[in-house]
Amino acid sequence: QVQLVESGGGLVQAGGSLRLSCAASGIMFIRNDMGWYRQVPGNQRELVARISSGGTTNYADSVRGRFTISRDYAKNTMFLQMNSLKSEDTAVYHCNAKHRGNGVDYWGQGTQVTVSS
Asked: Rounded mean pLDDT of the chain?
């Protein structure tokens, strides 16, 4: 059974930092590109950052330079270090895994990030 479990969300003041984690089980971690997406009620889910199975990263323009995505292959875990947080970063953050071979997507339940101004 595939499970993606996010943690690390919470309430933080503007300018602060949070570190999100996504623990993956039931998948071959090395064969999956991973990503963080976020969603605000009433809006579409949007890409925050992605990291390929080989470690190549890309970021949304709105977070580039403030957020850093990484993955630990030994622990089957992905991270998102979020610095200089802004109120507009408030959203539910979801972990995604996409198999490089068959394209199957998996999603976590999400973790709430709230940035107070």
From this structure: 96
Q: Which two tokens mark 62? A: 């709105």
pLDDT tens track for 36-81:
999 999 999 999 999 999 999 999 999 999 999 999 999 999 999 9
How buried is 69 (Cβ within 10 angstroms: 0-12 exposed, 13-18 middle, 19+ buried)?
buried
Give the C-alpha separation, 26 to 18, whole Å. Answer: 27
Angstrom CA distances, 82 to 3, 26, 31, 102, stand at 23, 27, 25, 31
Q: What is the 3-state secondary structure (H, E, C) of 17-41?
A: CEEEEEEEECCCHHHEEEEEEEECC
Rounded distance, CA 76 to CA 87, Å?
A: 30
pLDDT of residue 113: 98
Q: Give the Cα separation of 69 and 93 in Å (integer).
A: 13
